Amino acid sequence: MPTKVNATKPSARERLLAAADELFYSEGVQTVGIDRIVQKAGVAKASLYNLFGSKEELVQAYLDARHANTREQVERALTRFRTPRERLLGVFDAQGQLFTEPDFNGCAHMTASAEAQPGSPVECAADRYRLWVRSLFTDLAREAGVADTEGLARQLHLLYDGAGVSARMDRDPSAATTARAAAAALFDAAVKNEAIVAAS
User: Fold this and answer.
1) What's the CA gap between 156 and 145, in Å, rounded?
2) How many CB atoms lie within 10 A of CB 128?
3) For burial by CB atoms within 10 Å, which of 81, 107, 108, 168 has the most?
């Protein structure tokens, strides 16, 4: 006799977030209305407002979920690397993996924040994501023994952003490889300059 599998149906919150992720990411947060989200999720409109309060709060939750997913993917990818230099450059390898996903449509935070009001929950979600990227580069630069961690982190963050824009606008996943090579040159130059200063 076959065993009965009790598959747990996703909650209304999970279904709303899944629908928001698919529609907002592929079409944009302003283009997609609440009615389409609730229809795709198969829930009542009242459920959306009870769970999130507003469309803007739903957009924030969607961005926070994207942030958590990206962070998990990057952190998992970095476990493959042994040295601090490899880990720092490995961020661009992880980014390149994101670029090759079939539904890649650029940075969700950048797209959503372009349409957000200053100080809104959407802008705050984008700010949290950017702070995480900058902190990641700062921490990895510190691990690698770079003296000017903030300066190098800013440069690497610019490369990271530029690679994301290029991958989307040029439909070129290899942008991460180009950014990685530039990051390696910046890192090696920072280390070399510090060695020269220390020796003089």
Assistant:
1) 16
2) 14
3) 108
